C-alpha cells in the first residue's frame, strides 16, 4: 500500500528567525540559540500535522519553508540515517 | 509635531512622510501610488524614492549591493565623512551592511530569542495590570498616553538595566531620532550629543557595577576576540532603546484604535482567546508601524528609474502589507486570517531583532486590556493624533469605557 507522505524543510540561507513556523507548529520546527529555525529530525510530517505544515509555509515572510511530497520508499530510505543522527 | 515643509501637491513626484495628509492616513496615498507608479520620487531630503509594492519592497530589502543601511532614518542630514563607515554605521547592526552586520547580529540574537523574552513576560503582565488599575473608575482616558506608551518603555528600560525613573527622558530621545527629522542639522547634532552623554554615564555605571542586563551583556560582548568600541556600544544601546519603544507603543496603540472602532472584533477576541495568535499577526500586518530606509549605494537603473548614489529610499513595509497582489482582501482586517506572510518586522538580514519581544508585549498588552475593558470606544475619533515620520502609531487615543468596566 502506498500513501502520500510529506516532508518539511527550512532553507537555512533564507531563514531570518521570524519564528512564525515555530509558533504555528513547535512539533515540526526547532529553534537554535540564535532563534533560527530548522525542521525537527528529518522533517517528516505526521498526517495530523499536514495542515500545520501548510500554515508554516504560508506564513513564512522569507518563503524559506518548503513542503514536498515524498514517496514511502524515499521516506524509508532517508528517515533511517536521520534517526541514527538523532540518537548518536 | 509642526510641519516645517510646504504641503505636498502630488505624492508621486513630491512625497513627504511628514506631510499632514500622510500622517493622518497614508493608506489611500499608498494605494494610489501603487497603481500609478509604483515607485514614487521626491526632491525633498536631497532626493528620495518610495517603492510601493510587496515585490519591490522585498527586492530592495534583499539587495545589499545597490543599497546600504548606513542610515535608516530619512532626514535632512546624510551620513558624512566624520561618521563611522558603511560597514558599521552609527548604530550597529541596523546601520551596518554585510559582512560586519552578520557579526554584530549573531552577537545580539541570543538575547532576543523566545526563551529570554518569555522571562520578561511576568514583569510585562504585572506592568499592564498596574497601568490599568491606575485608570480604575475613570469613564474615559487616553489609551496611548496612559497605557500603550508605558509598556515598551518600562520593558526596555528593565532589559537595558537603566533607572526606571529615566523613562520620560527616553521618550524625548525617541522623538528626536524618529520624529524631529526636519530639524536644522546643527540643532539635531547638538541634541544627539546629549543622548551620547547619557549613554556614556550609563556605560560608566555598568562598568563599575556589572549586572545581569543587556548593557552589561554588551560590555562583555566580543566580536572576533575584541571587546566592542564604546561608540559602538553607545550606538547599539540607542538603537535598542529607539527601536524597542516607539515601535511597540505604536503597535499596541493601533491595535486598540482598531478594536475601539470594531465592536464585533472586540467581542470575538474577548470571547475566543485562542484567536489572539492570528489576530496579533493581522494587527501587525494591517497597522505595521515601521517604515525603514536605505541609501542608494551606487548609480543604477531600478525598473526604469535612475537611482543615484546617496539618494534616500523609504522602505515601506506597511505599504507592502497592504498590497492586494500579496494579500487577499488586503484592506480588510480579518482577525482569523490564517495565511499572513506579512513583513511588519522587515524582510531579509535586517529582520527586526526584537520581533519576539514586540510580539510578547503586544499580546500581553491586548490580553490584559481586554480582560479589564472588554468593551470600549473612541471618545472622539477626530481627536486621535498619529506620529509623523517612519514609525506610525496613535500618540493621542482618547477612549471611553463601556458596559460594566466603568
DSSP summary, beta strand count of chain A: 5
Number of contiguous helices of chain B: 17
Oligomer: heterodimer
| CATH architecture level-2 label of chain A | 2-Layer Sandwich
Structural class of chain A: alpha+beta
Query: In terms of per-residue confidence, which ranges of chain B show pLDDT below 50 for 5 or more consecutive residues?
Result: none
Average pLDDT of chain B? 92
Number of domains of chain A: 1
* Protein chain pair with the most extensive contact, residues per chain: A-B, 18 and 21 residues
**Content of β-strand of chain A:** 15-25%
Overall 3D form of chain A = globular
Structurally, the number of domains of chain B stands at: 1
Largest sheet of chain B: 5 strands, mixed
**CATH-level-4 superfamily name of chain B:** Cytochrome P450
Enumerate the spans of chain A where pLDDT stays under 50 for 5 or more consecutive residues.
79-88
Which architecture of chain B would the CATH scheme give at its second level?
Orthogonal Bundle
CATH class label of chain B: Mainly Alpha
Major β-sheet strand ordering of chain B = 1-2-10-7-3
Describe it for me?
The complex is a heterodimer of chains A (88) and B (406). By secondary structure, chain A is α+β, with helices and mostly antiparallel strands. Chain A has a single domain (5-86), classed as Alpha-Beta Plaits, CATH 3.30.70.20. Chain A has 3 helices and 5 strands. Chain A has helices at residues 20-24, 50-59, 72-86, and strands at 5-10, 29-31, 37-39, 44-45, 65-70. In chain A, the strands form 2 sheets. A 3-stranded antiparallel β-sheet of chain A has the order 4-1-5. The longest helix of chain A is centred in the C-terminal third of the chain and has 15 residues, at 72-86. Chain A is globular and about 35 Å long. The termini of chain A are far apart. In chain B, α7 runs antiparallel to α9 (150-160). Chain B is built from 17 helices and 14 strands. In chain B, the strands form 5 sheets. A 5-stranded mixed β-sheet of chain B has the order 1-2-10-7-3. In chain B, strands 4-14-11 form a 3-stranded antiparallel β-sheet. Chain B has 406 residues and is α+β, with helices and mostly antiparallel strands. Chain B has a single domain, classed as Cytochrome P450 (Cytochrome p450, Orthogonal Bundle), CATH 1.10.630. In chain B, a hairpin with a 7-residue loop joins β12 (385-386) and β13. The longest helix of chain B has 32 residues, at 230-261. The radius of gyration of chain B is 21 Å and the shape is globular. Chains A and B meet through α1 and α2 of A and loops of B.
Amino acid at each position: 500500500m502506498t500513501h502520500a507522505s510529506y516532508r518539511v524543510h527550512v532553507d537555512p540561507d533564507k531563514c531570518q528567525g521570524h519564528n512564525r513556523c515555530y509558533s504555528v507548529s513547535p512539533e515540526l520546527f526547532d529553534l537554535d540559540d540564535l532563534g533560527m529555525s530548522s525542521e525537527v529530525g528529518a522533517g517528516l510530517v505526521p498526517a495530523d500535522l499536514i495542515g500545520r505544515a501548510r500554515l508554516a509555509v504560508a506564513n513564512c515572510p522569507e518563503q524559506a519553508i518548503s513542503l514536498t511530497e515524498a514517496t514511502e520508499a524515499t521516506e524509508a530510505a532517508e528517515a533511517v540515517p536521520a534517526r541514527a543522527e538523532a540518537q548518536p | 509635531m509642526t510641519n516645517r515643509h510646504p504641503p505636498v501637491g502630488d505624492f508621486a513626484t513630491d512625497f513627504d512622510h511628514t506631510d499632514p495628509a500622510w500622517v493622518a492616513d497614508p493608506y489611500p496615498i499608498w494605494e494610489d501610488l501603487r497603481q500609478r507608479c509604483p515607485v514614487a520620487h521626491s526632491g525633498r531630503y536631497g532626493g528620495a524614492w518610495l517603492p510601493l509594492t510587496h515585490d519591490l519592497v522585498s527586492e530592495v530589502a534583499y539587495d545589499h549591493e545597490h543599497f546600504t543601511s548606513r542610515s535608516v532614518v530619512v532626514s535632512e542630514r546624510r551620513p558624512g565623512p566624520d561618521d563611522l563607515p558603511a560597514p558599521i554605521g552609527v548604530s550597529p547592526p541596523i546601520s551596518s551592511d554585510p559582512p560586519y552586520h552578520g557579526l554584530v547580529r549573531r552577537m545580539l540574537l541570543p538575547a532576543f530569542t523566545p526563551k529570554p523574552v518569555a522571562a520578561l513576560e511576568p514583569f510585562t503582565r504585572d506592568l499592564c495590570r498596574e497601568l490599568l488599575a491606575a485608570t480604575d473608575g475613570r469613564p474615559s482616558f487616553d489609551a496611548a498616553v496612559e497605557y500603550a506608551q508605558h509598556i515598551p518603555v518600562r520593558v526596555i528600560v528593565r532589559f537595558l538595566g537603566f533607572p526606571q525613573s529615566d523613562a520620560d527622558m527616553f521618550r524625548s530621545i525617541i522623538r528626536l531620532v524618529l520624529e524631529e527629522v526636519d530639524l536644522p542639522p546643527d540643532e539635531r547634532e547638538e541634541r544627539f550629543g546629549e543622548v551620547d552623554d547619557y549613554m556614556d554615564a550609563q556605560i560608566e555605571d555598568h562598568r563599575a557595577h556589572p549586572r545581569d542586563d543587556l548593557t552589561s551583556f554588551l560590555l562583555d560582548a566580543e566580536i572576533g576576540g575584541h571587546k566592542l568600541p564604546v561608540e559602538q556600544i553607545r550606538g547599539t544601546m540607542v538603537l535598542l532603546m529607539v527601536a524597542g519603544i516607539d515601535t511597540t507603543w505604536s503597535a499596541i496603540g493601533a491595535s486598540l484604535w482598531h478594536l475601539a472602532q470594531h465592536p464585533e472584533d472586540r467581542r470575538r477576541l474577548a470571547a475566543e482567546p485562542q484567536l489572539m495568535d492570528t489576530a496579533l499577526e493581522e494587527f501587525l500586518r494591517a497597522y505595521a508601524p515601521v517604515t525603514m530606509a536605505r541609501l542608494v549605494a551606487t548609480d543604477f537603473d531600478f525598473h526604469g528609474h535612475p537611482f543615484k548614489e546617496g539618494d534616500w529610499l523609504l522602505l515601506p513595509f506597511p505599504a507592502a502589507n497592504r498590497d492586494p497582489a500579496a494579500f487577499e482582501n488586503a484592506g480588510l482586517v480579518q482577525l482569523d486570517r490564517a495565511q499572513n506572510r506579512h513583513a511588519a518586522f522587515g524582510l531579509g538580514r535586517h529582520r527586526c531583532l526584537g520581533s519576539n519581544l514586540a510580539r510578547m508585549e503586544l499580546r500581553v498588552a491586548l490580553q490584559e486590556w481586554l480582560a479589564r475593558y472588554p468593551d470600549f470606544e473612541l471618545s472622539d475619533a477626530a481627536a486621535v493624533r498619529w506620529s509623523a515620520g517612519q514609525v506610525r502609531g496613535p500618540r493621542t487615543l482618547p477612549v471611553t469605557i463601556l458596559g460594566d468596566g466603568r
